[in-house]
């Protein structure tokens, strides 16, 4: 059973492929919309499928599914699915609204990177609530990596400054930086990120810096709206899609990748430290289409 196999029942299993006709195309489009790929993607994908069926004289269910897989995979392959950690240190900022799974994803990714032999340090950039740094500290202990934190209410830029200094002094490979969900407010977010990037540019000028948007898959189309807003204000380099274990709505990543051109890097599949998987477009689509 595949990781994303919940989609399978959600999408194509109820369709009858006896004949490839207009009725089937319409049913396919409906099924795609149900999986939350969005109206625009569903329409475009099926239109493309119609063309291919004509051009390639597709007649069997298998060939039809292969063509649809290929079309959707094309939408998902919009950039490097790996997090760029090619400089020492590299910096990764995690942004997104409250409750989507930023802190949890940082813990999982820290664990993963550490097991790959990287020296990781966490930056408790969500200084809005004391509990946020406490939560990140628990993850740092679970993952067995260092953390830099300060008191509640400290300027996140100051915490990042300290974390970068510690990363240099301790010869770390990667700095994973948490942020506060309240940054969702446009102006706040822009100001805060501009400040953080300035500090990064000054303190570790040759470092690559990724800005990853964390999205909760269970929110479906709402995720697309968040992604649009964050892309406009924050200049995203990737998406982490969490809570795919609890939903059949993950099709939303197709809409996000297709519309915004931002690659999905990891998916969250539970609350545990191992419940994270690199995103694999081929596997995802195969589970979706069957
Ligand atoms: N089922 C499931 N729960 C998750 C996943 N990622 C995070 N969570 C839960 O979502 C809640 C919010 O996570 P948190 O990391 O605090 O979100 P943040 O506010 O964005 O930092 C917590 O209860 C997490 O355990 C996931 O992939 N699957
Ligand atoms: Mg948090």
Overview of this protein structure:
The chain is an alpha/beta fold and 290 residues long. It is built from 11 helices and 8 strands. The protein has helices at residues 6-11, 22-34, 39-55, 61-76, 102-115, 130-143, 156-169, 186-203, 221-234, 252-260, 281-289; strands at residues 90-95, 120-123, 146-148, 174-177, 209-216, 238-242, 264-268, 276-278. An 8-stranded mixed sheet has the order 3-2-4-1-5-6-7-8, sandwiched between helices. Helix 5 (102-115) runs parallel beside helix 6 and helix 8 packs across helix 9 (221-234). The N and C termini lie close together (11 Å). The protein binds guanosine-5'-diphosphate and magnesium ion. Magnesium ion binds next to helix 5. Residues 102-103, 126, 132, 178 line the site of magnesium ion.
Number of helices: 11
Can you give the helix content as a percent range?
Answer: 40-55%
Cross-sheet strand order for the largest sheet: 3-2-4-1-5-6-7-8
Described by the principal axes of the CA atoms, the overall outline is elongated
């Amino acid at each position: 059973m595949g990781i994303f196999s919940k989609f399978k029942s959600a999408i194509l299993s109820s369709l009858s492929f006896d004949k490839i006709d207009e009725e089937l195309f319409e049913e396919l489009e409906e099924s795609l919309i149900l999986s939350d790929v969005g109206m625009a993607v569903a329409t475009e994908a099926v239109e493309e499928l119609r063309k291919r069926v004509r051009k390639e004289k597709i007649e069997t269910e298998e060939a039809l599914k292969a063509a649809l897989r290929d079309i959707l995979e094309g939408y998902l392959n919009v950039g490097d699915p790996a997090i760029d950690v090619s400089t020492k240190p590299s910096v990764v900022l995690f942004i997104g609204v409250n409750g989507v799974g930023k802190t949890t994803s940082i813990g999982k990714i820290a664990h993963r990177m550490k097991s790959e032999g990287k020296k990781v340090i966490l930056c408790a950039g969500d200084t809005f609530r004391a509990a946020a740094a406490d939560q990140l500290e628990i993850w740092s202990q679970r993952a067995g990596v260092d953390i830099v934190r300060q008191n509640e209410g400290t300027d996140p830029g100051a915490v990042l400054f300290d974390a970068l200094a510690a990363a240099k002094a301790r010869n770390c490979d990667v700095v994973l930086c948490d942020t506060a969900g309240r940054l969702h407010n446009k102006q706040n977010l822009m100001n805060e990120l501009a400040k953080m990037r300035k500090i990064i540019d000054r303190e570790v000028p040759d470092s690559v810096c990724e800005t990853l948007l964390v999205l909760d898959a269970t929110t479906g189309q709402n995720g697309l709206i968040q992604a649009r807003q964050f892309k406009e204000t924050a200049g995203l380099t990737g998406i982490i899609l969490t809570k795919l274990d609890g939903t059949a709505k993950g099709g939303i990543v197709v809409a996000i990748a297709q519309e915004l051109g931002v690659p999905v890097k990891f998916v969250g599949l539970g609350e545990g430290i191992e419940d994270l998987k690199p995103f694999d477009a081929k596997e995802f689509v195969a589970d979706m289409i069957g």
